[in-house]
Amino acid sequence: MRKYLIWSIALLLFFLLLGTFLVWSEREGTRFPFSFGLDLVGGTELVYRADTSRIEDVDSAMATLKEVIERRINIFGVSEPLVQTESAGLVSGNRDERLIVGLPGITDIDRAIELIGRTPVLEFRLAHPDVEEILKTNPNASPDKLFVTTGLSGRYLSRARVEFNPTTGAAVIGLEFNKDGGELFAQITREHKGEILAILLDGAILSTPVIVDEISNGKAQITGSFTPEEAKNLVRNLNYGALPVPITLATSQTMGATLGEIALNSGVRAGIVGLVILSLFLIFWYRLPGLISVVALVFYIILSLVIFKLIPVTLSAAGLAGFILSIGMAVDANVLIFERMKEELKKNKSISEALHEGFSRAWLSIRDSNISSIITAIVLFWLGTSAVKGFALTLGIGVIISMFTAITVSRTFLFVIVPTTDTRVKRFLFSNGFQK
Questions:
Q1: Predicted local confidence at residue 209, as pLDDT
Q2: Which residue ranges form the domains of the chain, and what is each CATH number?
Q3: In the list 119, 171, 235, 334, which could disulfide-bond 226, CB 3.0-4.6 Å?
């Protein structure tokens, strides 16, 4: 009993601190405000036009472009940038590929463009068979006329790093391709020995090395007059994700919320009403244990909101729905425990014995049901779009926290108040439903 009393006091102090932080963090100018999605608070929409004129597999390139931009904006996948691609002119044959990027809560267009960043387009091209003739007739010919595409570009890049020439000490860029890129690089160097393989960045020629022999290890170097700082910046941008196709900003606009303040207020109101109804039901049906479960549920909400702030999790309409749904799911474990307690009390066991048996025997069902919910959330987060990821993330976090509050908080508080002796009144307070 003494042990549980100490733990109860510690938990109360812990959640009191979390609640204080939650209130404090809502002040203007703090570091931990709630993040809301584009559909709730508006933001900026940027439309980019992709140049796919030299790309054979356009669909694959656009899918990669979407993934790269999404990764650059949100490396952890929780701020829910609304990134999508669209094609126009499919009937006429003149495809106009576009990338649409929605950035929640950002109304400064210059800031939005900065978030996307200027990602370098890396290409490896072979010299045109008639390059000498072209230069004779046009000494200022563009790289597009001097070199032909090989299909090897930054989309195949696995990683980039800063290296230094052991002889001169000059900074160079070391590149390492993924499996497909390494195979393509090996094929190019095997079939074009003695030819120039130019390395271009954003259409500018960086170096024009001659292929001496096949390179089968999937590694290459970009040499040039880089300062260490320039090399470091270039490596950083390449590692963020080299674009498979060049993009140019076509249009930009600041948007109001599509659901806006009404949807946000409605969602919050629905959560509060649901919490009140759920609390009344728990107290009416499960009596004193139900009251403890309501306290645990309040702690669950506080802890969830604090975690949402600290990660941070962007709450879109879907994410808000996932959180509200998780509030109802958070009492599942308590219901299983209390129903199991009822069965033990029917066997004329003492309240203390029934409580211990209830937690012990309900644990396997609680574990299995929550694991299945967590697996579902993981699959949705892994395979879903940005909006679905928001729903899956809030749901998954909610399930994990609910296990903690149900097993730890409820159990600790109940073991503090469990009576050592049974009376008719005490058995009534710890029974449920219409049972006396």
A1: 84
A2: 2-31+257-430 (1.20.1640.10), 43-116+244-255 (3.30.70.3400), 120-242 (3.30.1360.200)
A3: 171
